[in-house]
Design goal:
The chain is an alpha/beta fold and 83 residues long. It has one domain. It contains three helices and three strands, in the order H-E-H-E-H-E. The protein has helices at 3-14, 30-41, 60-71, and strands spanning 17-21, 46-50, 79-82. Strands 1-2-3 form a three-stranded parallel β-sheet.
Length: 83
């Protein structure tokens, strides 16, 4: 893993909460998704995802399940979605 990812990960470990905006958690970004998963599951960090809604119907439970699947999380207790 590159030093930049290690440095970013270490800074995230020092944070109380991690806010993510503009990142879609696609499968092509599995290495980054894995970092977020480790922060949530191994370091008990809360991840707050700023989810853009274009005025269409928004269902928080559906969104949480989508991010749970993308991040391959066991549970979503440390996952927050804000619109």
């Amino acid at each position: 893993m590159s030093k930049r990812y290690v440095d970013m990960f270490n800074k995230f470990k020092e944070s109380d909460i991690i806010c993510v905006c503009g990142f879609t958690f696609n499968c092509d970004d599995g290495h980054i998704n894995g970092l977020f998963r480790e922060l949530i599951e191994d370091y008990n960090k809360t991840i707050c995802i700023i989810h853009y809604v274009d005025g269409s119907y928004f269902n928080i439970k559906t969104s949480i399940n989508e991010y749970k699947e993308k991040l391959r999380l066991d549970n979503t207790s440390n996952l927050r979605i804000e619109q």
